[in-house]
Amino acid sequence: MIRSLLATLLLAGCPNTDKSDSDDPKVDSGGETGGDCADTGGLVYEDADGDGFGAGAAFTSCETPPPHPVENADDCDDATAAVSPLGVEACNGFDDNCDGVTDEGLGSDWFADVDGDSYGDPGSSTHSCTEPAGHVADNTDCNDAAAAVNPSALDLCSGVDEDCSGTADDPLTASWVATDGTVLDVSAALAAGTAAAPTTIGDQTGYQVEVSDGTVYLCEGTWYTKIVLANLGSDLSVVGIAGPDLTTLTTGGTTGGATGSVIAVTDTTLTIEGLTITGGVGSEDGTKGGGMAVAQAGAVSAAPNVTLRDSIITGNRTAYGGGVALKDFASMALHDSLIIGNEATEVGGGVWVQANGELSCVGTALGAAGIVGNSAPIAGGYYFSSKNDGSMETTGCDWGDAGVDDNDPEDIDRQPHADNAWCFGNAAALTDTVYCDPTGCTGTAPVTCAP
């Protein structure tokens, strides 16, 4: 019995010399570590790019290690050795140092350039290492919807701040815009005018600014400039952007400057807007139309030869028509415009009409239009030099208040003055309509003609 027990103990303590996989509980038939491997917890990771930082799934101590094991998984791109936690961030669109941020502290702001003028919109930007399509590095455009508006553009008299200076329409800036869309800066040409030698805007060769159909824009300032349109059928507009209080057209003739009317128009069409016309001493012989002389041959044109809008004719002096002379069949329309404070040494302090001339005056606001405060020996306001033709009609057009700004000596008179046949005073109210034709005037009270 003792022998039997010893045999049993010896058999139990003897190692198994059979190395077959099926008898080793730690190794399976495929040569892999079995599920009951005692894992020591030493995890490793593959470092495929050899930069010392691994990535991907962990390998346990019970598994066959990867070809390039490392003990961290901190790489964010294990195919690029330059990308790792020790990488240097470059401006390339990648996270080179694996901190979760791309191109931090690098790159530039780029600004949208929608209009393609090479100047960007400061309110529309993107940050990038390379210039995105439709963007530029500059951010000084003030209107990214207009290619002609940018810091290098020429500032025109247009109501637009073309050069992004923060100010639209710099003083003594002038532009010519033809009907075909051509735009020219004529500032230097016109600003060179002086009282002794005014420049000229006209439709004849040799003038400083030669025009035909289109618009001349004048910005704030005193312009020593004449307008002369003669027989070429031009259709011109001259606009003072800043309005008549700040924009003056003059020859300086009443203070010793050049002779002639400030504006002379023959057989053509002109519109004046936002200007004060002053300092004129009449046609080149110094006798007719101090501020403006207008002539039309043959018949009164369908449209007025001259139309004034929001403008003032003042401070002009000559023999016939201190402010305006309408000759032959000339016609003129005033819209919210004033003929005020002009002087004639013969007749028609405000307006002198020869033969068949016509004038209309319309005021849309109280005091906005009128023929007031003009003076002459005969007919301080308006004089018809023909007893048979010509007409004048005003609506809401001020003729002045007696003793305040009335025309001196009377508002309206007609040849022959000596016959005391055609003299009229103030309208009953500013909104009254005054109409005159060869038979007389309605809407205003008759007065005794001055001696």
What sort of overall outline do the alpha carbons produce when their principal axes are compared? rod-shaped
How many distinct beta strands?
35
- Which class do the helix and strand fractions yield? mainly beta
Main beta sheet: strand number and arrangement?
16 strands, mixed
What is the tally of helical segments? 2
Between the first and last Cα atoms, what is the distance in angstroms?
Answer: 176 Å
Helix content: under 10%
Mean pLDDT: 87
Low-confidence region ranges: 1-34
Percentage beta strand: 25-35%
Overall radius of gyration: 47 Å
Structural summary, described in words:
With 451 residues, the chain is mostly beta strands. It has helices at residues 2-13, 187-191, and strands at residues 44-46, 55-59, 69-70, 108-112, 125-128, 135-136, 174-178, 183-185, 199-202, 209-210, 214-218, 221-230, 235-240, 247-250, 263-266, 269-273, 276-278, 292-296, 306-309, 312-314, 317-320, 324-328, 331-335, 338-340, 343-347, 351-353, 358-362, 370-372, 382-384, 391-395, 412-414, 423-427, 433-437, 440-442, 444-446. The chain has 2 helices and 35 strands. The chain is rod-shaped and about 140 Å long. It has a 16-stranded mixed beta sheet that branches. The protein has an 11-stranded mixed beta sheet with strand order 8-7-11-13-16-19-23-27-30-33-34. 4% of the residues lie in helices and 32% in strands. A hairpin with a 4-residue loop joins strand 7 (174-178) and strand 8 (183-185). Mean pLDDT is 87; it is low at 1-34.
